[in-house]
Design goal:
Elements lengths: L1 H17 L16 H4 L2 E17 L5 E20 L2 E8 L16 E11 L2 E8 L20 H5 L4 E11 L2 E9 L5 H5 L14 E11 L4 E13 L2 E14 L2 E14 L4 H6 L6 E15 L4 E14 L6 E15 L8 E13 L1 H7 L4 E15 L2
Antiparallel strand pairs: 1-2, 1-16, 2-3, 3-4, 4-5, 5-6, 6-7, 7-8, 8-9, 9-10, 10-11, 11-12, 12-13, 13-14, 14-15, 15-16
């Protein structure tokens, strides 16, 4: 209904503007033969805004804060250009727009790709996209995630490259990608902070493979992935993720396991602990993420997210445990309208960052916690 109204409006405005001046009607701004194309185009405007109050306690973190926050604001355009060609574009307004030195796009351009349906079971994707990482935490758009666990909070989530997906069986789909592992050249990304024997590779490349499975009439689903990327010459990151989802009527349970071994620290967590002058090497991040959703009725939904993340240094030698973080995010959604997806939410975000005795003794760090309350709304608005 809204789409038909907007299309009619596009046609009528130029006609009304000139009808009093001319006896003959001019051509509309949008030619009639293009109207059919508009029916295959979707314009979205996504917003998440809220009011937050938070406290940090521990270490050097003793402060409070109260503010309004635009957590996510983005304009998206997607559609079908041909029976076998689709496109997707998303511009996020609360991100840096500086053009990146490697992929030549601003960080605010998160998605800019085309999908080509080569056959009923094979699709090709080209452009700037999200890697085919596993797990259900990563499946959610950032619009719906109030706070990620440590790995996905620091991962490079949108990069340029090529990928294919193959529907091998009705309930089993496989994906493979070849991507840039960075959006910036090494010197622009790290500046003077370097590790020993670091060299810029001819191609900082990442290889990502995943498998999506469905069992028991869709009640149990999986997203597993394995990736290896080269951030610098002959040294890279191996990232392994197991994602599981169980859904039955009003209850949805999701559990992810993440394992990221990095010969050169790409997440920056251990680098920030160890030194300001060199990059941490041979580090490991191991995480668990659990989310439960229960729909009480059409208007109210309850969510609970629990997460842990462990960081280890010098994995090949001493395997030093440096830090473990914990997170808890209970949330209530209220959806007052039937025909529009507008959600009001109330959430508590509790995070605790616990440094090991080894880290405290050697790197002058101490544990701390964050407590936060947010009230706001989430609105994925379909404009056309």
């Amino acid at each position: 209904m809204i789409k038909s109204f907007l299309i009619s409006l596009f046609l009528l405005v130029p006609l009304m503007g000139f009808s009093q001046l001319n006896d003959s009607l001019p051509e509309p701004i949008i030619p009639k033969e293009k109207i059919e194309l508009l029916k295959n185009i979707n314009f979205t405007f996504d917003m998440r805004m809220g009011f937050q109050a938070y406290t940090f306690r521990g270490g050097d973190n003793y402060y409070n804060g109260i503010q309004f926050l635009n957590g996510f604001t983005a304009l998206g355009i997607s559609g079908k250009l041909h029976e076998k060609v689709h496109f997707t574009f998303r511009n996020r307004f609360n991100k840096n727009s500086d053009v990146q030195t490697l992929d030549r796009l601003g960080s605010n351009i998160e998605l800019a790709f085309i999908d080509i349906k080569a056959s009923p079971s094979l699709e090709i994707r080209l452009g700037k996209m999200n890697p085919f990482y596993g797990g259900y935490e990563y499946e959610f758009s950032p619009l719906y995630v109030l706070e990620y666990n440590d790995v996905y909070n620091n991962v490079l989530a949108f990069v340029t490259g090529a990928g294919i997906t193959y529907q091998a069986l009705e309930n089993h789909k496989f994906g493979l990608q070849v991507l840039n592992s960075r959006t910036m050249h090494y010197d622009d990304l790290y500046g003077d902070i370097v590790a020993e024997n670091i060299q810029e590779p001819d191609w900082p490349v990442a290889f990502v493979g995943n498998w999506r499975g469905s069992f028991f009439d869709g009640k149990l689903q999986t997203i597993y992935s394995l990736s290896h990327s080269y951030e610098v010459k002959k040294r890279g990151t191996t990232f392994f993720t197991l994602g599981h989802k169980y859904q039955n009527r009003n209850l949805t349970l999701m559990y992810d396991f993440h394992y990221s071994y990095e010969e050169v620290d790409t997440k920056g967590i251990l680098t920030s602990i160890i030194s300001d002058e060199s990059i941490a090497e041979d580090v490991l991040y191991v995480e668990n993420w659990l989310r439960a959703e229960y729909r009480f009725n059409p208007k109210f939904t309850g969510l609970l997210t629990l997460m842990t993340s462990s960081a280890y240094d010098n994995v090949k030698t001493s395997n030093d445990h440096m830090r473990r973080s914990y997170g808890m995010i209970p949330t209530v959604y209220y959806s007052p309208f039937k025909n529009i997806d507008l959600r009001f939410f109330l959430a508590y975000i509790g995070r605790y960052f616990d440094y090991s005795d080894f880290a405290r003794d050697n790197f002058d760090v101490s544990s701390y916690n964050k407590n936060e309350v947010r009230i706001g709304f989430i609105a994925p608005l379909l404009l056309l």
